[in-house]
Amino acid sequence: MENNRLQEEKVPKLLLSLALPAICAHLITLFYNLVDRIFIGRMEDGVMAMGAIGICAPIVTIINAFAELLGAGGAPLAAIHIGSGDDKGAEKYLGNSFSVLTVVSILITILVLSLKSPLLVLFGASERMLPYAASYITIYCMGTLFIQLTVGMNYYITTQGFAKTAMITTMLGGILNMVLDPVFIFVLGMGIRGAALATVISQMASFIWVVCFLFNKKPRLRLLPGNMKIRVSVLKEILVLGSAPFFMSVSEGVLHVCFNNQVLRFGGDLAVSAMTILFSIFQFMLLPVDGLAQGAQPIIGQNYGAGRFGRVRETIKLTALVNLLFTMCATSLVMLIPSFFIRIFNPDPELVKLGERMLRIYAGAFFVIGLNSTFQNTYNALGEGKRAFFFAFYRKGILLIPLLYFFPAVLPWGVLAVMLAEPVSDFITTGTNALYFRHFIKKKL
User: Fold this and answer.
1) Is the pLDDT of residue 444 over 60?
2) DSSP for 386-431?
3) Coil vs helix vs strand at 220
């Protein structure tokens, strides 16, 4: 049984077996997002189209936050119930998440399509970029239901120990998207609309895979009609624990808006396009970190539920060490050859020159992000969503967003002063979180 393996197998081997598929899945997701943007960047009007994708990114991020709210909010609770032998209780979280995500997805689709033009202008679209952004988001929103349920339900597959199955979910959509992108964008001449349509069709395929798996008899937790009735008590628990990852995703969308508006103000459309590339590179560096943390969550949650605290501590220490080593290597690479990463997306000389200067500052404190991600995911795995929420809010709401406006107001560096807010807030947040986390683990375990 998967839960016996989670509670008995040696932690390094177990963490590798769970994290590797998650990391591969994240890398595939990133890879097809990168391919998407590389194709877009090589269109005839690629610089403008790239900027338009950056304008749409906050909307996409905020939409996906609801999958985090109900998926990342319910799955750790389900894992704790599995660890204590309460499978029926665990299935209630799965069923409620599925039902609420369905309703939320429909409402989001209606809302965004009704308000797309004012939203895009608010989020930093210039007059030249608006047509590109509107074309992309219109088609993307039509697939909201498939995207939300795929992401949200995949958490419940991972939390049962089926990391390879969760990886296939992502691989299926990623590979299909990479095949369809050049066909729709160039062969059929759909441009940026083709990129959006490729994403929708790919996520539809992943959705079918996820739902078929959760309805069959292989998983320990299954989607059963009796558990799909929304229960206020169950939903409340999910929302409390999911508030931290939800806020992190929503605040990431808000950050995109703030960054886009500030770099547009100090650097124009070219800086917005460069910012889109920087976000993509940052995602590339973050996904392995999040994949490892995701692999650790079911181990931490189920062993905590079973009272095996020694295995919980061992898993946390190993995850933190590996994440720290990775982020240090990634930071060094970006600092040494920033222009290489910019040129992957678009070789425009002016874009490369500005982008590499922005990137060196933006990723300056990335080497500490691995530790902070480990702390945040551990809070959620142990059912301590409020603590994860506080540090997410502390980093973005108290530090990063205000600094985005403070630094360019007091420093004569223009768009580079905007970039400085990221490393400063990352460093302060991780240091503060590390001090608290040490006290928290001693008390909790």
Assistant:
1) yes
2) HHHHHHHHIIIIIIIHHHHHHHHHHSTTTHHHHHHHHHHHHHHHHH
3) coil
229: phi > 0 → left, psi -120 to 50 → alpha, else beta; which? beta
Report in angstroms the alpha-carbon separations of 247 from 46, 59, 65: 32, 14, 8
Look-up of token digits 């009007």: 45
Length of the chain counted residue by residue? 445
Compute the distance between CA of residue 131 and CA of residue 158 in angstroms, rounded to an integer: 39
1 pLDDT above the threshold of 50: no
Residue pair 343/352 in contact by the 8 Å Cβ criterion: yes
Rounding to the nearest 10 degrees, give the CA dihedral for residues 163, 168, 170, 174: 150
Give the model confidence (pLDDT) of 43-82 as tens digits.
767 778 888 888 888 888 888 889 989 998 888 888 888 8
Tell me the CB-side half-sphere exposure of residue 418, using CA atoms within 13 A: 21
Question: Residue 438 pLDDT > 70, yes or no?
Answer: yes
Residue 10 Ramachandran class (φ > 0 left, ψ -120 to 50 alpha, else beta): beta
**Angle at 272 (CA atoms; ends 269, 273), nearest 5 degrees:** 90
